[in-house]
Design brief:
The protein is of the alpha+beta class. The protein contains three helices and five strands. The chain has one domain (3-115): Trna Endonuclease, Chain: A, domain 1. It has helices at 3-27, 65-70, 74-89; strands at 31-38, 43-50, 53-61, 99-106, 112-115. The protein starts with a helix and ends in a 6-residue tail after the last strand. This is UPF0102 protein GCM10008024_04560. Belongs to the UPF0102 family. InterPro entries: Restrct_endonuc-II-like, tRNA_endonuc-like_dom_sf, UPF0102_YraN-like. Keywords: Endonuclease, Hydrolase, Nuclease.
């Protein structure tokens, strides 16, 4: 498979993973506030609401959960934090809005493992 085609397949697999994760959160009462929200610092895959809380979700898809988790880097976590800060500025509660940062891992079979508050120290 050529490089361009592999890129397209990866892109579509990522979209499918994000959609599956959004449905999983939706089943537990979360509403999607934004998909692939882009600020000056970068992109956040999913931003969800449940009550007054916002959940910023990074979706990682790979052949298995361990490989997907390996793709979460410190640099990426910092980018998500910064982008989330940009998003929170537009919220009525601003930076005081209750929020957390989750990572959703999706394996090659489409199974989902959600790591709630994954960026906690």
């Amino acid at each position: 498979m050529n490089r361009r085609l592999r890129g397209k397949v990866s892109y579509l697999a990522g979209l499918a993973a994000e959609e599956s994760v959004a449905r999983r959160y939706g089943a537990s009462g979360h509403r999607v506030a934004a998909r692939r929200w882009r600020g000056t610092a970068g992109e956040i895959d999913l931003i969800l609401r449940k009550g007054t809380e916002l959940i910023f979700v990074e979706v990682k898809q790979s052949s298995n959960f361990a490989r997907a988790a390996e793709h979460v880097t410190r640099r990426q976590m910092e980018r998500v934090y910064t982008a989330a800060s940009e998003f929170l500025v537009g919220e009525p509660g601003g930076m005081d809005t209750p929020s957390r940062f989750d990572v959703a891992l999706v394996d090659g079979a489409g199974r989902i493992d959600i790591l709630e508050n994954a960026y906690a120290a």
